[in-house]
Amino acid sequence: MNSHTFYWIVGSGVLMTLLALVGAFTLVLREEVLKKLLLPLVAFSAGSLIGGAFFHMIPEAVEAIESPLTVYICIVSGFVLFLIFEQLLHWHHCHRSDSHCVKPLGFLILIGDAIHNFIGGIAVASTFLIDIRAGIATWLAAAAHEIPQEIGDFGILLYGGWSRKKALLFNVLSASTFLVGGLLAYYMSAYIKLDYLIPFAAGSFLYIAASDLIPEVNRHHHLTKSLFHSLCFIAGLALLLVLRLMFHG
C-alpha cells in the first residue's frame, strides 16, 4: 500500500475532525449576523456537493467500474439509503424550534452525524486510493457541507441544554469517525473492492444537497437574497468544476 496515499487519508481525516470546532465561532457572533451567514454557506455547500458528485465522483466511478449500469445503481442506492436513514433518525426535526423535539434528539443527531462521517471517510479514502487529485476535490466538497452542518449541530446542542464544552467535545468525537472510516478503507482496500463506494457516496451527496440543503435555501422568498443564494450555489458548483479542469484537464 502507498504510504503517500496513507498520509493524505490521515491528513484529510484529521482536518475534517477539526472542522467540528467551527461551531465555536457561533459563540462570538450576534444572532442576526449568524442568520445572514448560514444560508449562503448552506447554498454554497449544496452546490459543492452536487459539483463533487457530478464533476469528480461519478466520472471517477465510470472510469473505475466496467459496467455503467452498476455505477448508476450504486448512485441510486446511496440516494435511497440516505433517504431511509434520514427518515429513521427524524433528521428534519432538528430544524424545529420546539425544545421538546430538539432536546431528545441531541444524541440522535450526533449518532447520525457519526455514521454519516464514517461513510464519508470511507468514500473519500476510496477516492484517494484511486486518484489523489479526485480525493482532494471530494474532500473539499465534503468539507463545504460539514461547515454549515457543524454550525447547525452545535447550535442545536446548545439550545438543547448542553454546555459549550460538552457540545464541542461530542461534536469532535462524532466527526472523528471520518478518520476511522478512512483508515478502515485504506487497510481493507487490499481485501475488498472499494470502487463501488464512490458512486454510492455520490448518491448520498446528491440526496443531502437536494433534500436537506436546497429546501432550506428555498425558504427565502426575498428576490435579492434568493439571487444571492443562487450565486452562492453556482459558486460551489464552479469551484468543483474548476478543480476538475485543473486536475484532469
What does this structure look like?
The protein is mainly α and 249 residues long. It has one domain (3-248). The protein has ten helices and no strands. Helix 5 (105-130) runs parallel beside helix 8 (177-188), helix 5 packs across helix 9 (197-217) and helix 6 runs antiparallel to helix 10.
Brief synopsis:
By secondary structure, this protein is an all-alpha fold.
Largest sheet: none
User: Helix/strand-derived class?
Assistant: mainly alpha
Unreliable runs = 94-105
Q: What value does the average pLDDT take?
A: 79
> Using only CA atoms, what is the Rg?
18 Å
- Write the H/E string, N to C: HHHHHHHHHH
Question: How many distinct helices?
Answer: 10
| C-alpha geometry | globular
Q: How many structurally independent domains?
A: 1
Which percent bin holds the helix content? over 70%
Strand percent estimate: under 5%
- In terms of quaternary structure, the protein is single chain
The count of β-strands is: 0
| N-to-C CA distance | 27 Å
